[in-house]
């Protein structure tokens, strides 16, 4: 059976959407169908066998679109395998240790019975929206800390889990 997976993401400056695309790319290479969507475009989860929800971190909070998505679709999500990710740290820390979910992501993890949560490094590039983003960039603290291999390895583990579930 081919699983159809939704990868939904909350982003402000686009880099979390790119992580969602990377995850979907790995899932597709594993023979799964994967749709990447901003939460606002998803009316219902019928037709999806599994869901990955990701959100950017801003001021210690999981992106609002990710939080809302998990709340709005909680009943359907509880009936499906769900994986969560956050993207944030603008340094190599995410690859060096397990960074626990912030409260909004942790609440979603518990409420939905998510299979796992992972924090990936983030990215902040010239042109990012917001005064604070510009200040961080001006101080030279921006950059791209997304580790494609780590993202791909995590997506592989999602595909592995689904392959086991499908074989049952
Ligand atoms: C104003 C501001 C606040 C941020 N706060 C956090 C934070 O609390 N924790 C964190 O890990 N990263 C934080 N970051 C880094 C962002 O999470 C990172 O740039 C992320 O990749 C942005 O995702 P997006 O491009 O999808 O919006 C912050 C960035 C900005 C500009």
Automatic annotation (TrEMBL):
Superkingdom of this protein's organism: Bacteria
Occurrences of domain Flavodoxin-like (ranges): 5-159
GO biological-process terms attached to the record: heme biosynthetic process
Xref: InterPro entries: Flavodoxin/NO_synth, Flavodoxin_dom, Flavoprotein-like_sf, Protoporphyrinogen_IX_DH
SUPFAM superfamilies listed in its UniProt record: Flavoproteins
GO molecular function: FMN binding; menaquinone-dependent protoporphyrinogen oxidase activity
Identification of the protein by name: Flavodoxin
Upper classification of the organism: Bacteria, Bacillati, Actinomycetota, Actinomycetes, Kitasatosporales
């Amino acid at each position: 059976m081919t699983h159809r997976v939704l990868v939904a993401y909350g982003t402000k400056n686009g880099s979390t959407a790119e992580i969602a695309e990377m995850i979907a790319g790995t899932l597709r290479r594993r023979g799964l169908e994967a749709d990447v969507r901003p939460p606002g475009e998803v009316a219902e989860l019928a037709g999806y066998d599994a869901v990955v929800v990701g959100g950017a971190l801003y001021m210690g909070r999981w992106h609002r679109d990710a939080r809302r998505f998990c709340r709005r679709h909680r009943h359907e999500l509880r009936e499906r395998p769900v994986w969560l990710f956050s993207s944030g740290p603008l340094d190599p820390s995410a690859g060096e240790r397990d960074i626990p979910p912030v409260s909004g992501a942790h609440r979603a993890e518990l409420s939905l019975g998510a299979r796992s949560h992972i924090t990936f490094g983030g990215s902040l590039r010239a042109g990012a929206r917001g005064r604070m983003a510009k200040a961080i960039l001006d101080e030279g603290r921006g950059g791209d800390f997304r580790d494609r291999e780590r993202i791909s390895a995590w997506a592989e583990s999602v595909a592995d889990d689904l392959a086991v579930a499908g074989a049952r």
